[in-house]
Amino acid sequence: MEERLTNIEMKLAYLEDFLNQLQEVAVENSKTIERLENENKYLSERMKDVSEFLEGDIPNRKPPHY
User: Measured between alpha carbons, how far is 32 from 38 in angstroms, rounded to an integer?
Assistant: First the structure.
């Protein structure tokens, strides 16, 4: 009986460690996703600004299918 209890305690300890590792990875991934979303938003805004700037310089621009 004591051996079974020791085995269960060991498995519980491994599961707790694994859960902590998963939580750390989830937090890191969340931070990475947030950073990438911010970068994507910034780059989208910059592309829009550049596009508007360039379109103002080309008055008779051909459509893209030509």
Answer: 10
